[in-house]
Amino acid sequence: MNDQSNDMPNLGITDHLGRRDLIKVGAGVGLTALMAAPMPSWAASEKPIKIGMVDPITSIFAALGHSEIKGAKFAEEEINKKGGIMGRPLQLLVEDGAGNPGTTVTKAQRLVTRDKVDFLMGTVNSASSLALSQYAARQNKLFLCTGGHVDSVTGASCSWNTFRTCSTTWMLTSGDFETLFKKFGKKWYFITTDYAFGESEQADYTKQLKAAGGTVVGGALAPVGTTDFSSYLIDVKAKKPDVLCLLLAGDDQVNCMKQIAQFGIDKKIAVGGALMELELLQALPEAARYGWWTMEWYWNQPKTPHVAEFVSAYKAKYKGQYPSARSWFGYASVHAIKLAVEKAKSTDTIKVVRAMEGLVLPPEIALQPGAPEYRAADHQLILSMFPGHAIPTGKYPNLFDVSAIVPGSQLALPASATGCKMKYPA
Amino acid sequence: MSTPSSLSRTDAAATTTNPKFNRRVIGNLLLGLVLIAVPFWLPLVGGYTDLASRVLIYALAAMGLNLLLGFTGGLSFGHAAYFGLGAYGVGLMLKYETHNIFIALLAGTVLGGAAAALLGPIAARRRGIYFSMITIAIGQMFYFIAVRWNSFTGGYDGLTGFSRHPVHLPGLTLPMGSLDFYYMVLICFGLGAWGLWTILNSPLGHTFVAIRENHKRLTFLGIRTQRYIAISFAISGTIAALAGGLDAMYGNFTSPNVLEYTLSGNFLIIAVLGGMRNFWGPLVGAVIFILVRDYVSSITHNWMTVIGLIFVVSVLFFPLGILGSIKDWRALISPRIREQDAP
Amino acid sequence: MVLLLFNAFNGLIQGAFYALMALGLALILGLNATINFAHGAFMALAAYFAFTIFPYTGFWGALIIAPLLAAGVGFVVETTMVRRLYTRKDPIYTLLLTFGLALILQDMIRTIWGAQGQPLAIPAMLNHPLSNTYFFVTGYRLFVVGVALVSTGALFAVLRFSRIGIRIRAGNSDLETIAALGVNIYLLRTINFMIGILFAGVAGILAAGQLGLNPNMGDSLIMPAFVAIVVGGVGSLLGSLLGGLIIGLASGIVTTFAPAASEVVIYVIMGVMLVVRPRGLLGQEGLFE
């Protein structure tokens, strides 16, 4: 049933747990086989170090999840080719969290109790990140959040066991706030996705806007999965803002941008927002590719060492696909765990946590200027931001023009202002 | 599970004839022992206790649904609504009102049960496909309320910030870890099953089955079938709500996903897969459904296809479900059983 | 006030869209006695077919050919699976069958075409607002309404004047009698199912033009179609049409006052309808019971 997988790039991730296992199940094997653990592809006498990754493979977050998993698989392969971690093979076990916090926790439970993984990583949407962070703390496991942006993960709800590779919503919003404000004006309108991520972004923008003397002329909360934005856009037209700020996620962002273009609103009002992803730009038709946004990583960095090699190796593995920021999150997170384990010379949770605090990603992993570091006080990776604008006439993968690479240290709130009070277990 | 039993008219009558009744009691006792011993044998075959809790929670919900579906003949595609209300009831109580998990569970069950009691009569005014359509739509209404009433329900992100608090008994404190919780689920499951069993063996239960078998005749006999369907609906929703409440405690978390029609569909397939004419059918269905989903989703990204195939294959080839098919097969080889169970 | 008018009008456009989906669903619900949970997946399937043949046929060709391809898949599904369940009286079997099919179709779509969303380009002539004041009346939206009108008109004409249409209608009211009169009801049901999928296909491509393609695209669109049927009255095609327009209009109007309630309102309308007039606007008493 997935014979097509050979020529489909997105299925590279099923490589080693692929067709044969499926046929096995399809053949209807009994309970014993159902309980058996999948075999690692790395034959070795050493016990593997296991990372359990819970990421959306289905649901509206699937496209982003697939990229993160590809990046992580790429890192796994790279590490195992070079002899693993401290002589032990690395095994990445991937489960589908479906972007649903309940499912995410259930899958993590399986990974921890049944597969006995040493570390947890993953999640695309913030609600899943928060739920998994809470669960991992109870289980005494390190959790490296790859893609949930809400401030609280490394802010008010921060936890001793949780680190984060992607940026905070504060960093995302401050990445291009000045550009939007100075270039286009002080009257803003928000269309925000109705869950933690969007609300956090809007709060962050609003704070900066008020401080700079701007006003919020209106806003709408759109539930996840909204297909028709016209009623919101009618209100936007009526309020005549200078900037229409879109804080939506995934397909919703795509739908909204298309409708804005159909209504011709982007021709009259500046449209922008915080997070933009290569996956989203890819899903947009030419006419709807516009606006000012922030990327968290971009493949086209001619001046940064190692990036070109990474991109071409990634392309070779995934049949011409370019790595997105999500791919990099997956890639960097797996490497970060490896580095921390090596630094701690142990897989013990608290020792690895201590080793990861202050861990600096070396240039061949960081793949960006500067030296991003997992800040000890709040466990947030201080990565660079790539504000810029979409290229309407661009052809894949040339869809975004990075205007500057801003070091994260200029954008992130100081650790004291994040609201994070780290409490370690006794 | 050694004596799968169905409550057709003959079975219900059999409660008074001793040999079969005894066999069934022994069977149920055996099943009880197997379930009590789960934490000891499950790890040996590669399972884990939380998985068993999840199986029982789903089985309980599907057994509740099956009172309406299998024994009264009402196809509800909206039972996730009552399951979800139970979950939100428990979550909200634990978050804002009380640290006593039993009070919270009771509140959640009452909330879901009350909703079922109020909405059942509306749905019961129609039968067949229309009944199903109404139940779907009512369920979706609760879904959207949970998604949009952000400040109260936590919206799309779900409700967090509550947990199973330890239980203080005189001279004993239960920390409510995986093991304690499993037994709590098992006790609730036992109570629910006992309640359903009692109802099905009472005149009320016989009326339900009669409605399923011949709705028209009962109407002609002057029995107000709508009222009985509504009663079945309310009981069934209450049991689902109890299961939902346990589900919220299971992960210390609940989200609008527990109100979605997809979950209603899962409950239905659990009942049909195990055998919706059989009392323990939903339990068998839940064991298979949850185990397959748990396992398949970690070995292939195409787990949805496998689940979809379970739906298609069981509908096309095993309309009686697993227990129903076993009974059919036994009837083929043993004339004695055929005689007993012949309608 | 202007805003209210805007929203109401916009709601009507949206309603035309729901109506198109509800019609296909209602057809299948009628003669095939099947609550087709796979309707949304068939929509997505047709849209992806359109996406695939687009380079060869262009938008207009795809709009015609892709629904036919989806109807072909519908043919296979009906003849190999749905058909076997007609003799079972309990609607649960067809319902669970299509529910499972929906999962499989969605997963296949994700496997074949990828989880990554894709744009479906629409002709430039349709892709801009018609006037400055009424900017939300884009060419494409009017086109959607136009297609909805034309295909609904065509459907009613077929049902009214063609032999097959008359038989479908007759079958809806008394299947046994027309079977006794020598009509091949198996063939009739197959054709009816395919027409239903055809409508899903057209709706899917129109949706893809506006929203883009992704494997889950059917999920959010199928429920309002169910509600449209309940409100309009099960068993009445005209009712489904009206139901779609009414819920579109209602959610448009409510958006003006309480945007947060715009989805719930359609379920509230349905609830009120069920209490006041359980058979729906134009539903027949006693059908499918």
Which band does the percent of strand residues of chain A land in?
Answer: 5-15%
- Report helical residue fraction of chain A: 25-40%
How would a textbook summarize the main sheet of chain A?
Answer: 7 strands, mixed
User: What is the overall number of helices of chain A?
Assistant: 15
Question: What secondary-structure arrangement, pairings included, does this model have?
Answer:
The complex is a heterotrimer of chains A (426), B (343) and C (289).
Chain A: H1 19-26, H2 31-35, E1 49-55, H3 62-81, E2 90-96, H4 101-113, E3 119-122, H5 126-139, E4 142-145, E5 162-164, H6 169-184, E6 187-193, H7 196-211, E7 215-222, H8 230-239, E8 243-247, H9 250-263, E9 270-275, H10 278-283, E10 292-295, H11 307-317, H12 325-344, H13 349-356, H14 363-366, E11 386-390, E12 400-402, H15 408-411
Parallel strand pairs in A: 1-2, 1-3, 3-4, 4-5, 6-7, 6-8, 8-9, 9-10
Antiparallel strand pairs in A: 10-11, 11-12
Helix pairs in contact in A: 3-12, 4-5, 6-7, 12-13
Chain B: H1 9-14, H2 18-36, H3 38-41, H4 49-69, H5 80-97, H6 101-124, H7 128-148, H8 150-153, E1 167-169, E2 172-174, H9 178-200, H10 203-213, H11 215-220, H12 225-251, H13 261-274, H14 281-299, H15 303-317, H16 321-333, H17 335-341
Helix pairs in contact in B: 4-9, 4-12, 4-13, 4-14, 5-6, 5-7, 5-12, 6-12, 9-12, 10-12, 13-14, 13-16, 14-15, 16-17
Chain C: H1 2-31, H2 39-80, H3 92-113, H4 139-161, H5 163-173, H6 175-180, H7 185-211, H8 219-232, H9 237-257, H10 264-276
Helix pairs in contact in C: 1-4, 1-7, 1-8, 1-9, 2-3, 2-7, 4-5, 4-7, 5-7, 8-9, 8-10, 9-10
